[in-house]
Design a protein that fits this description.
By secondary structure, the chain is an alpha+beta fold. It has 3 domains: about 120 residues, D-Maltodextrin-Binding Protein, domain 2 (3-Layer(aba) Sandwich), CATH 3.40.190; about 110 residues, Dipeptide-binding Protein, Domain 1 (Dipeptide-binding Protein, domain 1, Alpha-Beta Complex); about 210 residues, Roll (Dipeptide-binding Protein, domain 3), CATH 3.10.105. It has 15 helices and 19 strands. Strand 2 and strand 3 form a beta hairpin. Helix 13 runs parallel beside helix 15. The radius of gyration is 23 Å and the shape is globular.
Length: about 525
């Protein structure tokens, strides 16, 4: 599919109209936002984010919503094209596979961290060794295929692999490739910088006030001469979509991302607002702890998959803006598989038959976890209604995303089912490895995947040809959906809004915006 300009396929800029009746600070206070909630300085990009970060250390954090914050303070070894997610140069200006099990990175020169330390091959080795080996790291599985990392010279890094891995460049565009300053950690790989990030990114860290805001100021020595486009960035954390919308509507913010799908029609009618919309890799889904109890039985997990009416879910919770998810990829993605999709259809009779076969004809009660914002509570109510129709009942325990994620997937292992989302990764092999590998944080039960899964996953990493990779990934996805390792429900579509003063904003298929190229037109 051809893509033109900076608008990906499926993305349509909203109509621009004249704003009538801007709400002032009094109106903002009336909606529950303090008068000083958002800076009014014209050189500050004021962004509304829906989630508090779990950590500002890329190796330590656990929430997929962290990335937008991390991109402000860190650069990655490899970047990606916002329209296609194809790999682009980042801190690594070039890379090459001289043989199937060797990846050589050539680094940008003249780059420094915010603390003045040089970015060089030694820093890359420190980061990759930390990310794949330190106990504090949550991204060890991302780099499990690395045998050794060598600083060949000051600006060259050689990575020895256990097996061929053509996915690795894009893996290095994600958390595992975001570079932190070794000096800031005292050269201690077990150190953390969750509250004091030091990278090479476009902004230096200024402050993080929990559940309120994260702020940064321009890094004057950034290695990209055209970044950042504003002197300061302020990411204001507003979890309720209605409040976030009122902030952008009133002019108290410049940009809000991942608004509610229901707000699309309102944005289209809002004067002087731009609308950005389109599919993302963000998928609402059920995570399971399948190591114990009823969910250890594949028939119960399959019954849950058949019980859900995905079309009704999209209509009820997303105002029809989105698509039913039958795997953890949207249909627009190159690795989407028709065969895998057939295991996630609405069939209540089959769900009841599977529950009866598993010994739960009289009903089944489960403990669910979910987030506490209004939209998440609505999603909880809808899925409980679908499940109750086949005899599955339960209660939801709700809380902030970082808290409930750690409670379900961390040491406590509380609950049976977690209704959340998967935010996607640039390369789909990383998505499947992270969701279902035995030791992965996101595999709450830490259970081994079914026979053939790991072999198919490895096969998808052995070719640089997209068709061969898609065939191997079809097997991966078929196994995952056939065994209901998790249950996808709906693909979330991006609904972003900005003021007309915002230029250079480019949403992406990943659904995790970067702001380094954004600027504000003079008023």
């Amino acid at each position: 599919m051809t893509r033109t300009g900076n608008t990906p396929p499926g993305w349509r800029p909203g109509r621009r109209q004249v704003l009538a009746g801007l709400a002032g600070t009094a109106g903002l206070a009336a909606m529950g936002l303090p008068r000083a909630a958002l800076s009014q300085d014209g050189t500050t990009l004021r962004v509304i984010s829906g989630h508090n970060p779990s950590s500002l250390d890329p190796a330590v954090g656990s929430s997929g919503t962290d990335h937008t914050f991390l991109y402000c303070f860190y650069d990655s070894l490899v970047d990606w094209d916002p329209e296609t997610l194809a790999a682009r140069p980042g801190l690594a200006s070039a890379w090459d596979f001289p043989d199937p099990t060797t990846l050589v990175l050539t680094l940008e020169q003249g780059v420094s961290f915010h603390d003045g330390a040089p970015f060089d091959a030694a820093a890359v080795k420190f980061n990759l060794d930390r990310n794949r080996g330190a106990q504090v790291s949550n991204v060890r599985n991302d780099l499990a295929n690395i045998e050794a990392v060598e600083a060949t010279d000051a600006h060259t890094v050689t990575i020895r692999l256990k097996a061929p891995d053509t996915a690795l460049p894009l893996i290095l565009s994600d958390r595992a490739g975001l570079m932190v300053s070794p000096r800031a950690l005292g050269d201690d790989p077990e150190g953390e910088m969750g509250r004091s990030p030091v990278g090479t990114g476009p902004w230096r860290f200024v402050s993080w006030t929990d559940a309120d805001s994260v702020k940064g100021e321009r890094f004057a020595d950034h290695w990209r001469p055209d970044a950042p486009g504003v002197d300061r960035i302020e990411l204001r954390i507003i979890t309720e979509k209605a409040t976030a919308f009122r902030a952008i509507q009133s002019g108290q913010a410049d940009l809000a991302y991942l608004l509610a799908e229901q707000q699309k029609a309102l944005i289209e009618r809002m004067p002087q607002l731009k609308l950005y919309e389109g599919p993302t890799l963000r998928v609402h889904k059920f995570y399971f702890n399948s190591s114990r109890g009823p969910l250890a039985d594949v028939r119960v997990r399959q019954a849950i998959g058949y019980a859900l009416d995905r079309e009704a879910f999209v209509a009820a919770t997303q105002a029809g803006v989105g698509e039913p998810a039958r795997m953890v990829l949207p249909q627009a993605h190159w690795a989407w598989s028709e065969a895998a999709a057939g295991h996630m259809v609405h069939d209540p009779d089959k769900a009841r038959a599977l529950l009866k076969e598993a010994g739960f004809e009289g009903g089944l009660e489960l403990t669910f976890l979910g987030m506490h914002d209004q939209a998440s509570v609505q999603r909880s109510e809808v899925v409980l209604e679908h499940l109750s129709a086949v005899g599955i009942t339960g209660r939801f325990v709700n809380g902030p995303v970082a808290d409930v994620t750690n409670r379900f997937m961390g040491p406590e292992r509380f609950g049976d089912v977690y209704l959340s989302y998967w935010t996607g990764r640039p390369d789909p092999t990383l998505t499947y490895a992270l969701l279902y590998s035995e030791s992965s944080f996101y595999n709450a039960g830490r259970v081994a995947p079914p026979e053939g899964f790991l072999e198919a996953l490895q096969a998808s990493r052995e070719s640089q040809e997209i068709e061969a990779r898609a065939r191997a990934l079809a097997d991966v996805q078929r196994i995952a959906m056939e065994h209901a390792l998790s249950v996808p429900i709906a693909v979330a579509y991006e609904v972003d809004a900005s003021s007309s003063a915002v230029t250079g904003y480019q949403p992406n298929l990943l659904g995790k915006p970067k702001f380094r190229g954004v600027s504000l037109a003079a008023s």
